[in-house]
Amino acid sequence: MNNTVLEQKLGVPEVNQGQQEQIAPVKVKYCLYARKSTESEERQVLSIDSQTKEMLHIAEREGLEIIDIRRESHSAKDSGTRPVFNEILADIKKERFNGILTWAPDRLSRNAGDLGSLVDLMDQKILVEIRTYGQVFSNSPNEKFLLMILGSQAKLENDNRGINVKRGLRMRCEMGLWPTCAPTGYLNVRNDDKKCVVVPDP
Fold first, then answer.
1. Which positions ≥6 away from 82 have C-beta within 8 Å?
2. 29-156: in CATH 3.40.50.300
3. Nearest-5° angle of CA 151, CA 148, CA 83?
4. How far apart are CA 117 and CA 109, in angstroms?
5. In the chain, what is the greatest distance between 2 CA atoms, to the nearest angstrom?
6. H helices of 124-176, where?
7. Which of 5, 53, 103, 170 is in the most buried spot, having the most CB atoms within 10 Å?
8. pLDDT at 32
């Protein structure tokens, strides 16, 4: 028994030849997120205002609908610690918007926890798209994989930076130098060898 006869017996409606099922594209509504850490390692990152301005230009050029703009001055190295980012995740779950527009992937996450939260929302199909200055990440295996690689790279940079700072402080201690700013009652001064030492504050 061929498929056509079986479909007729089961009462399956006949589809005209050439007729194809059309699925309406999902309308993406974006939240623009701009972030810069107050920590010294992000001195070279675009300011929050500059990030916002650049992404608004992209939205205007490509006809993107921005529902809200969120700004945050907070480090992204620890998961769950950014109030504004957490609000964005909550609003995505409430379906207030289903896309994020941001300067770069590391503006969203420099840790595995927050990165995983974004990918989970994509898996649930309530976060449709993350768009950055030069890339678009949607709910496809390859694009999610690339997003995770870039987010993991940002975490690697943070981890290596922490190791290097500790190594530098340890070396200063081994050289007999005070590793950080002088404590209360003392001053940081340079001796004849141009090395910074701690002396009592007269």
1. 35, 72, 74, 76, 114
2. no
3. 55
4. 10
5. 103
6. 141-174
7. 103
8. 98
Of 18, 85, 30, 88, which is closest to residue 55 (Cα–Cα)? 30
β 136-138/186-190 pair status: unpaired
Q: Partners of 187 in the beta sheet?
A: 199
Q: Tell me the β-bridge partners of 186.
A: 200
pTM: 0.67
What pLDDT, on a 0 to 100 scale, did the predictor assign at position 103?
95
Hey, how many other C-beta atoms are within 10 angstroms of the C-beta on 94?
9
- Closest of 75, 73, 124, 127 to residue 101, by C-alpha: 127
Distance, CA of 106 to CA of 35 (rounded, Å):
9
**Tens-level pLDDT at each residue, the chain (202 residues):** 555 555 555 555 555 555 455 556 789 999 999 999 876 555 657 899 999 999 999 999 999 999 999 999 998 888 899 999 999 999 999 999 999 999 999 899 888 899 999 999 999 999 999 999 999 999 999 999 999 888 877 555 655 555 555 555 566 666 656 566 666 766 666 666 656 666 676 6
Residues forming beta bridges with residue 21, ordered by sequence position: none
Q: Which residues lie below 8 Å from residue 198, measured CB to CB, with a gap of 6+? A: 178, 182, 183, 186, 187, 188, 189
- Residue ranges per structural domain of the chain: 29-156, 169-202
Alpha-carbon gap, residue 48 to 180, rounded angstroms: 29
Helix (H) or strand (E) holding 41, with range, is none
